[in-house]
């Protein structure tokens, strides 16, 4: 029986190959989807900072937080807030 690590890495490799194939086959829609996600992520982070100024909370604004917020949406924002509070409390 294959080890669980082998199965995990095989699954991740297959997902990576699938993502690359999609980008190569349809570069336009994937590019615009990434741009839309980044813009929404920026807006989400700015909204958190705008509301956070009343409770003295600031979420760092950088490309990583914007992309995480854009790709994951509201759960991504919640995860960023929890991680920020956990790591920098």
UniProtKB/TrEMBL annotation:
Entry keywords, A to Z: Membrane, Transmembrane, Transmembrane helix
Alphabetical list of InterPro entries matching this protein: BofA
Keyword Translocase: no
Annotated TM spans: 6-24, 31-52, 64-88
Membrane keyword on record: yes
Pfam family, one: BofA
This protein's name: Inhibitor of the pro-sigma K processing machinery
Organism placement in taxonomy: Bacteria, Bacillati, Bacillota, Bacilli, Bacillales
